[in-house]
Amino acid sequence: MKIFFIIFTLLLTNNYVFAGRLYNEAYYQNLWCNRWNGITEYKLSDHTRVDCLTKNYAVEFDFAKKWAEAVGQSIHYGQMTGKKPAIILIIEQPKDFVYYHRLKKICAAHGITLWYMKSPLYEDKLNLEYYKVLALSQINTILP
Prior knowledge:
Layout: H1 2-18, H2 25-35, E1 39-43, E2 49-53, E3 57-63, H3 67-81, E4 84-91, H4 97-110, E5 113-118, H5 122-142
């Protein structure tokens, strides 16, 4: 029974680690936009949608690897609304900061405000590999 529980736990952990995104983009939009009293998915006259429109900013949310797309969208939304263009880059793991630093230079050159949000599980993900190895070593000590 103990072996079954450990194997079951490992299977759940593997699915969790290798599933695409931990949280979808809307999760971050709603969290941030509600905090700053913005309007999510604000529809523009050209039928595009601003991820979050606040008193001062037209904010585009994107995952780190989609940093380049965020630039054009934020500029467009800023022009269409008369608000300052802004980007919130979603950081899911430490290596995502490469994209943040790349985007930082571009945003400075084009007057785009840049922020980032870390995934709620950002820190935990760093330790998951350790726990998987630990669980595997425990299985090996239990099995004959």
